[in-house]
Amino acid sequence: MRGPVLLCGLGTIGWRILDFLRAAGVSVVAIDTTCRSDDTRLSGIQFISGDFREEAILRQANIAQVQGVLIVTSDDLINISTGLLARRLNPDARIVLRMFNQNLVNRLGKTVKNMTALSVSALSAPILAISALSGDVMAAFALREERRQVAEIEITETSSLANRAFGLIDPTEKLVLISHQKKDSSQQKQEVASRQVALKPGDRIVVCGVPSDVQRLREPSSEQLRELLWAGKVRRFFRVIHRTFRELERPVQICLAVLVTVVVASTMVYHWGVNDSWPDALYHTISLITTGSELGAEKTEGWFKVFVSLLKIFSIALIAAFTAIVTNYLIKIRLGAALEARRIPDGNHIVICGLGNVGFRVLEELLRIGEESVVILEKKADNPFITAARRKGAVVVIGDGTLPDVLKQCKVETARSVIVATSLELVNLEIALIVAELNPKQRIVIRLGDSLATDTVRQAANVGLALSVTELAAPAFVAALFGDRVMSIFPLEGKLQAVMEWKIADEQDMFHKQRPRDLAQEYHLTLLERTTADLKKSTWDSGRALEVGESITFILPLQQLEQLLQTAVEKIVAVSDSKP
């Protein structure tokens, strides 16, 4: 992007976006009301202190000359109003907004020309979900409605990948080898990455593929571990009984205990006092309590008549109280939640702690990837996402995740992984540490806001997958500046890489009749996929020329992206000038 970019808002995500813009070599003008002009983080950029909702401030930032506008405050109304004002002052600039309201995200982009609205929770959820399944993720993006990930894998002495060529490990070519850095190499050279070169211990490779394939590459035995572990039917039945009794309120527990005690005592009286058999004694007791029938009590001795009379009076009061309390309990729908205990597997499931915007998006991503069993732990019983989550097939447990007993109820010790995604960072850290105590080897993905805190937690608290939502979302905001063709941006060895889809629109397209392998060499592309005009994946043939309607997806250095887009524009202009 040759022209300057206007960045409105230097909050947590704003600063991270600024880092990526710097790495991309983009000229930035920043506007904020709270930041000080002498902040050392502003070194090398133009900064204006003021309210960017004011036209005078935007004109001071020379908005008419910028190529892109990023508005990333935490207030949807401020972002929308600023975006509309910026669109009026510069009709051609690409505008990218941060939005919380999910209903407005898609509608706003369709209504206003050249404006993109992005949600931090929607951007971070795919990486949180994929991290839970396959470990560290460098980037995640959707390709033909199928989620893809970019991941780095280190070859260890005990790894099944050691001393084998990548082409032998992945003979079906489902995975794309992006780069191969040898142990003794000081620089990573993408152009020499080869599927025929043997991988040695200490080497690092970067691959792209669907999460399940990447996971099998990291953990060859993961396919066997995907099968859910279920307890026996008897054990699951008693689990439901135990959970149901724990969910009961204290008055219900007392009434139930008294009722059971009375039934047992009365049955014993009928059995030993009147010489009834055990079935008859139980039948007489239940009949007397529920209907008040004497069942021949007038023929018995005096003491038994007193017992029957007292039992009648006591039963009326007991049944009335018990019915009222249990009805109130059922109205609160707690029994349904208790019955869900039977659906919690004994192992190899995914646990999500926190069902907010991020947690619900993570659930959707896991289901989209094909994860079969998800257990959600949510503290608030009135959470608006609970009904939707249950409709999607997830098990929702209501409880406090900072209590070890509640976490044990969700079987976090034997779960495949645990995602901690509440809106409170300290709570997330506390839950993660408790889970680590219950199972030190458990894969824990924890959501944090600050990237510095993320690094600290990774190193000091031994939580390997502590992820910052701002770190995850910031690249997408930068990618949106380059247009709809750019699907994702991620750093690789200090350089930004762009994932891009290019469709050959007509015969004047610069890629028309070009061979992909020639394009890869000229523009330093890593080819990911070639798709025919009918959207069916073609057999990858890098030597066959591209036709109109086909599209290719590739990864290239961000600096090369500028050259690529500029060449495309120049060819369009040249074709237009050549026409009479």
UniProtKB/TrEMBL annotation:
UniProt entry keywords in alphabetical sequence: Membrane, Transmembrane, Transmembrane helix
Gene Ontology biological-process annotations: potassium ion transport
Domain RCK C-terminal: 136-223
Gene3D superfamilies hit by this protein: 1.10.287.70, NAD(P)-binding Rossmann-like Domain (3.40.50.720)
PROSITE patterns tied to this protein: RCK_C, RCK_N
Domain RCK N-terminal: 2-118, 347-470
Lineage: superkingdom: Bacteria
Membrane-spanning segments: 123-143, 252-273, 313-331
GO molecular function, one term: monoatomic cation transmembrane transporter activity
Keyword Protein biosynthesis included in the entry's annotation: no
SUPFAM superfamilies found in the cross-reference section: NAD(P)-binding Rossmann-fold domains (SSF51735), Voltage-gated potassium channels (SSF81324)
Listed name of the protein: NAD-binding protein
Protein species of origin: Telmatocola sphagniphila
Lineage of origin: Bacteria, Pseudomonadati, Planctomycetota, Planctomycetia, Gemmatales
